Amino acid sequence: MSTAEYEDVSMMEADLAMTAATSARTEMETRDVSVWFGKRKVLEGVNIAFPKNTVTALIGPSGCGKSTFIRTLNRLHELIPTAALAGEVLYEGNDIYSPEVDPVHIRLKIGMVFQKPNPFPSMTIRGNVLSGLKLSGMKRPNHDDIVEQTLTAAGLWNEVKDRLNNAAGDLSGGQQQRLVIARSLAVNPSVLLMDEPCSALDPGSTLKIEETIRELSRDITIIIVTHNMQQAVRVADNTAFFLATDGNPGHVVEQGPTTEIFGNPQDQRTLDYVNGRFG
Amino acid sequence: MSSTITFDAESLPRLEEQKPQTPWGRRTSRFRTVVILAVLIPAMVATMLFWFSAIAGPIIVVAIYLPLQIIAAVLAAVAVRGTKSAGDAVIIVSAIAATIFSLIVLVSVLWSIVTKGMQALSAAFIFQNNEYISPSTPLGYGGVGHAILGTVLIVSISALIAVPLGVMTAIYITEVRGRAVPYVRFFVQAMSGVPSVVAGLFILTVLILTGVLDNSAFAAGLAYSILMLPTVARTAEEVLKLVPDDLRTGALALGSTRARVVLRVVVPAAKTGIITAAILGVARVVGETAPLLLTALKNDKTVLNPFSEPISALPTYIFTNVAQPYPDAVIRAWGAALTLMVIVAVLFTLTRMLSTKRPGK
């Protein structure tokens, strides 16, 4: 590891300690969330609290229901025809699944970044950043400032400031992913869900996005699914370990402060997983 | 320093009792009331006008009910979800109205063909030919057996020619990617605009009047294939383009030759689409009448030889009968139209069933 990167990581750790100390209020919380696809139960009894302005990592082997779980948090889960759900998902104390809640509003406040970068190909870089405002009908003044602020926050500004009117498809994969992060920030979400945002990226882009995540967690709550345990250590204040065994529904085996999950886990399976003995 | 929380096994009995639910389908009673009102009020206004005013029904539906329903839906949406969802309401109501309108048109066409066609239908109608039958012969004698055979023969010949050619053209455009691609694509596109009568004339002047071919099923099949080719080629091109490049590179990385990539990976991946292309090609030509009038002519006898004799097909049978001043002949034409429709429907269902088979069990 180069010196420059090492400095970044130590800065991140300092940052991490600080946010852990200042965070108190719970922004989102799930209570006994279970999920079905058709008759098959894929997730059982997930109880996690997400404190405001923290980063929570969801880790676990493939097929344990992490991605399914994260999609229940902004009501994207219900778009799958056979999907079913039990339990409660609380956002600022209210169940987002209660009938008087408009899912459009929920998705506006709880943004999401997906595994594969998905910038809109028919729009320019600038157009992509501002697309959320158009799509949601949200009115915010000073579009130029929003473009600069969000792209800066996503760590992309310096690379694209001279070609904001180029097609978004011309960017590299890592740049595209940072562009969609900027896009999701432009509508001012208070929670950002990230489903393996770095799995298709090179280490350089990954590091940049991790810096971005630490930076963003000053102002918003971030929930990130990751396969990369080092990434969880680097960015997350808290970590939840999901596991599904032999066709049983997945559940959270252990959760807590990231340092404890990786340094002093209570469950043998957690210990094995974080030490790379399976998964 | 807080420590970790492990899975709480005591919660299991509580979780056992959970039932799968779809909370996103739950509605507040306010929502229900608003929606019911938004549906009922415009319908009631329209019904009242229909009974108690002199305005014609269709005008009520288009000029009063529909705008009223859109306004009601917008108001309902605004009341339940706020001003931002007004657009949703307009689009949903317009889409439903447009769908119902197209359904009414389609069903009424279908209805008239079925009701009129059924009068002609009988075993004799399906299996007998038109020999010794005059336009005034009562229903119950004679039929479209020869024309069914004619249609099947002509369409099969054209499909045998046009489907392989069309798919190969698509493969040239998407897989071979040779230098002529832009020109090929341009001509294929231009060909899809050729009027069917021109296809018939082309075969007539180039192959029949010169004595190369007789008026026959084969000549008609050639004319049909001119019409079918662009449809098959363009549709197949579109579906081959949908096959992800990762599959091609994946196969090449296993040491495959380009021909095997195309035959073993790309074409099977696009199989459903290619079958759809073939169906669309058949659907494009099966009702075409003009080329047949110039190439196959008509024949009241059953013809099995595709090369030497004039032959009738369902479109030509409809064409000749519908122009007769005898009611029974016109009914026969409807019967033939129904037969043609059923054949197309059977063909579509069959290919759909074949094409939805998945690998393995």
Descriptive key words:
heterodimer; A: 279 residues; alpha/beta; Rossmann fold; five-stranded antiparallel beta sheet; 11 helices; B: 361 residues; mainly alpha; MetI-like fold; 2 domains
Question: What's a concise summary of this model?
Answer:
The complex is a heterodimer of chains A (279) and B (361). Chain A has helices at residues 3-22, 66-72, 103-109, 125-136, 143-153, 157-160, 173-185, 203-216, 229-235, 258-263, 268-274; strands spanning 26-37, 40-46, 49-51, 55-59, 83-91, 94-95, 110-113, 191-195, 221-225, 238-243, 251-257. Chain A has 279 residues and is α/β, with parallel strands linked by helices.
Q: Can you put this structure into words, describing what you see?
A:
The complex is a heterodimer of chains A (279) and B (361). By secondary structure, chain A is an alpha/beta fold. Chain A is 39% helix and 23% strand. Chain A has eleven helices and eleven strands. In chain A, the strands form two sheets. Chain A has a six-stranded mixed sheet, with helices on both faces. In chain A, strands 1, 2, 3, 5 and 6 form a five-stranded antiparallel sheet that branches. In chain A, helix 5 crosses helix 7. The longest helix of chain A is centred in the N-terminal third of the chain and has 20 residues. The N terminus of chain A is likely disordered. With 361 residues, chain B is an all-alpha fold. Helix content of chain B is 71%, strand content 1%. Chain B is built from 15 helices and one strand; from the N terminus they run βααααααααααααααα. The interface between A and B is medium-sized, with 38 and 28 residues. Strand 11 of chain A pairs antiparallel with strand 1 of chain B.
